[in-house]
Design a protein that fits this description.
alpha+beta; elongated; single chain
Length: 76
């Protein structure tokens, strides 16, 4: 799972981010993986991390989730 988001420095400079997750799920559990990322506990941890780095928390609607097809990689 990859998570793309955009944050801003406190002076207003846009900072696009891509986060590679260690979560690997089948197609049937993608929604569960997204919900886990968006859980209150995880978002609180993210907010602390962003604050430490002096970045604004991304807007709740600004997360984009992507999943790689692991079957391609399994055949190689």
């Amino acid at each position: 799972m990859f998570v793309r988001m955009e944050t801003f420095t406190f002076n207003g400079t846009a900072a696009p981010l891509t986060a590679k997750s260690t979560v690997k799920v089948c197609d049937a559990h993608r929604e569960d993986a997204v919900n886990g990322f968006l859980s209150e506990r995880n978002l609180n941890e993210l907010q602390r991390s962003f604050k430490r780095e002096r970045l604004a928390m991304p807007a709740p609607w600004g997360y984009r989730f992507e999943f790689a097809d692991l079957r391609e990689h399994a055949e190689n």
